[in-house]
Specification:
There is one protein chain. The protein is built from 5 helices and 4 strands; from the N terminus they run αββαααββα. The chain is mainly alpha-helical and 165 residues long. The chain is globular. The termini are close together.
């Protein structure tokens, strides 16, 4: 091991694995998508999933210097619609990592956010934020669903992640 750091790639793999597990779980528990949810004024679990994946997509577009999709233009129609948004975001993140050098990671960019106005952050910090944001909301979702009577059958801590050796 040459570094004690957790890499952005490891965090990205953890996010992909977690999302796939949730996708499979929701396929077997579709009624859970309708559970009321006040997190980020989402209205329902499906609305929270839109928020998670919209942040992934919009910030991944910022990382790549692309036009940012309007939040309201992201569909909430179904879980499959939202998983497609997540898949596009993941492709964007992988494309960014494949081409990013130290200078690109350290570059500070302006971010026009939905809830906090204009912020400034390095591309490295923004990349980490995308994944930590998702991780935090998955944890909230886990608690919310457990309180509503829905249980899952896998550990969710990063320690158990398939991204780690």
């Amino acid at each position: 091991m040459t570094s004690a750091a957790i890499t952005l790639e490891e965090l990205l793999v953890d996010n992909e694995v977690s999302t796939r597990k949730w996708q499979a779980w929701f396929a077997n528990n579709p009624a859970a998508l309708d559970v009321p949810c006040a997190i980020y004024n989402s209205g329902s679990v499906l609305g929270l999933l839109k928020h998670i994946f919209a942040v992934e997509l919009r910030h991944s577009q910022r990382l790549n210097g692309e036009e940012v999709t309007a939040y309201d233009a992201i569909p909430v129609g179904s879980l499959d619609d939202l998983i497609a948004v997540h898949s596009q975001a993941t492709q964007n993140l992988r494309r960014f990592l494949a081409s990013a050098n130290d200078a690109a990671l350290l570059e500070v960019i302006a971010l026009q956010t939905v809830s906090a106005g204009t912020l400034y952050a390095s591309r490295r910090k923004l990349f980490a934020h995308i994944l930590l944001h998702s991780m935090r909301h998955w944890a909230q979702l886990s608690s919310l669903l457990r309180e509503a009577g829905y249980t899952t059958d896998w550990p969710k801590d990063f320690l158990f992640s398939e991204a780690m050796e």
